[in-house]
Design a protein that fits this description.
The protein is α/β, with parallel strands linked by helices and 477 residues long. The protein is built from 15 helices and 11 strands. The structure holds pyridoxal-5'-phosphate. One of its GO terms (molecular function) is carboxy-lyase activity.
């Protein structure tokens, strides 16, 4: 039988080039598009819902249908006016690298199945270890699907090393600004709610060291076993960095595991200002970074770094009989021994190719630009009589609210006003700009990590918000 999936080289070329043309056209025209798309389940069902077809149809027709209906019904995370959540600016080299990795369908689980893929993961991991001032020889790490999986992998490792199988009294500490993926991970690992301490943050949204110390002391008095502190280096809400040196000291004194979730902020280490903000990051036992955020990689790639790579193999290796022929020697790392997945896509390739192509200098330049742009935005807002800055520019994130000085709006009115401005902006689809809540206030949040975002893009958006704000303000007068 001939494989039913076989295509002629001509057909593959023609189909493949069409897709490349679409992606290139998207890169070239993204500024002319609107970043927001919105569709209800009913609308989407009307377009897509059907039984799996038994019969074939031309690939070009399927592609055309996808280009018409799928792509436009997705927000554009690479858009310069995509300000919300954490945008993913991406880059074309990595996009093509992903295509290459998929095209050759390279298995990135064991050394023997793809020595070069494992080697590239070792090499790029060494680059990251060096960037974060982790020990390159003893340290190690693994690429994951994202920050959530990196945090889960880290906490599974922390528990294995610090508690082994007896963790019923183990207590874990994190701030009220820590990312929800940490709580998810803690729950998945089977910790009870009573084993989690959410520590309040100060007025800069950093974990309160005194409250943290008090909780640890209280737990010890009650015979509990503090075992891990999760610090955040670049909180998702405000870009704040917990006091890393002070937490490192506590971990040292109390013999606790020090995990830093730098999924958002870690990449900032490549800039001068970021390096200062992230002082102490090298003291972590385990560190999550997320290349599909501020390292400009396309989805999915997260990363976990650890001080000692044997911690990972101690936590995750199993030796099943069907893998015994590919075990290899010690230096030839089987990444299935370092984490949860056996079969893994070749994530290191895009990271490798983009850094080799552009050079770290390009990354440093882009990240420094992003940090400066957020500071420039803060200046603009502080000099305006219509805006109030709620959280200063931190690692390219800024939070603010529409609060015209000439009116005496109360808190409830301000919340309503800002919610409506964001809703109106989303409705216009001109900018992806949603709110968050800080100290019980509804605020507008901008995350400015796209190197294609100019101050003009920011200003246009703020001016449009001012028009909406002035309009809605009239209602309260
Ligand atoms: C985004 C983020 C995560 C989760 O990462 P994913 O790649 O979305 O899984 C975890 N922690 C922080 C601080 C984040 O900003």
């Amino acid at each position: 039988m001939k494989s039913p999936f076989e295509m002629t080289p001509e057909a593959m070329t023609s189909f493949g080039y069409k897709i490349v043309d679409e992606v290139v056209a998207h890169y070239a025209s993204v500024n002319q598009k609107k970043p927001v798309s919105k569709a209800s389940r009913t609308e989407m069902d009307a377009v897509f819902l059907q039984e799996a077809p038994e019969e074939s149809m031309p690939a070009e027709d399927v592609l055309q249908f996808v280009m018409k209906n799928v792509i436009p019904n997705s927000n554009i995370s690479t858009h310069p006016k995509s300000f919300s959540f954490v945008p993913s600016p991406s880059n074309f080299i990595s996009t093509m690298a992903d295509t290459l990795a998929t095209g050759f369908n390279i298995f990135s689980g064991g050394w023997m199945l793809a020595p070069a893929a494992a080697e590239l993961e070792i090499v790029t991991m060494n680059w990251l270890l060096k960037i974060f001032d982790f020990p390159v020889k003893q340290g190690g790490g693994i690429f994951t699907s994202g920050g959530s999986m990196a945090n889960l992998t880290a906490l599974a490792t922390a528990r294995r090393i610090k508690c082994d199988t007896n963790f019923s009294d183990a207590i874990i500490y994190l701030s009220d600004q820590a990312h929800s993926s940490n709580i998810k991970a803690i729950r998945i690992l089977g910790f009870q709610k009573e084993q989690i301490r959410i520590i309040p943050t100060d007025n800069e949204f950093k974990i309160s060291i005194n409250k943290l110390k008090n909780e640890i002391a209280k737990d010890k008095l009650q015979g509990k076993k503090p075992f891990c502190i999760i610090a955040t280096a670049g909180t998702t809400n405000t870009g704040s960095v917990d006091p890393l040196d002070a937490i490192a000291q506590i971990c040292e004194q109390e013999n606790l595991w020090f995990h830093i979730d730098a999924a958002y902020g870690g990449a900032a280490i490549l800039s001068e200002k970021g390096k200062i903000a992230l002082k102490g990051i090298e003291k972590a036992d385990s560190l999550t970074v997320d290349p599909h955020k501020w390292f400009f990689q396309p989805y999915e790639i997260g990363c976990l770094l650890v001080k000692d790579k044997s911690w990972l193999s101690y936590t995750f290796s199993e030796k099943p009989e069907y893998l015994k022929d590919i075990e290899g020697n010690e230096s030839e790392i089987n990444f299935y021994d370092y984490g949860i997945q056996l079969t893994r896509r070749f994530r290191a390739l895009k990271f490798y190719m983009s850094i080799k192509t552009f050079g770290l200098k390009a990354f440093r330049k882009a990240i420094s630009y992003n940090i400066d742009l957020a500071e420039q935005t803060e200046n603009y807002l502080r000099n305006s009589k219509k805006w109030e800055v709620i959280s200063s520019a931190n690692l390219a994130i800024i939070n603010f609210r529409f609060h015209p000085l000439k009116y005496q709006f109360d808190e409830k009115q301000l919340d309503e006003l800002n919610q409506k401005i964001s809703a109106k902006m989303m409705e216009s689809k001109e900018a992806l700009l949603v709110t968050t809540i800080l100290q019980n206030q509804i605020v507008i949040r901008m995350c400015l990590i796209n190197p294609n975002t100019t101050f003009e893009h920011v200003k246009e958006t703020l001016e449009q918000c001012e028009v909406f704000g002035d309009l809605f303000s009239k209602k309260y007068l």
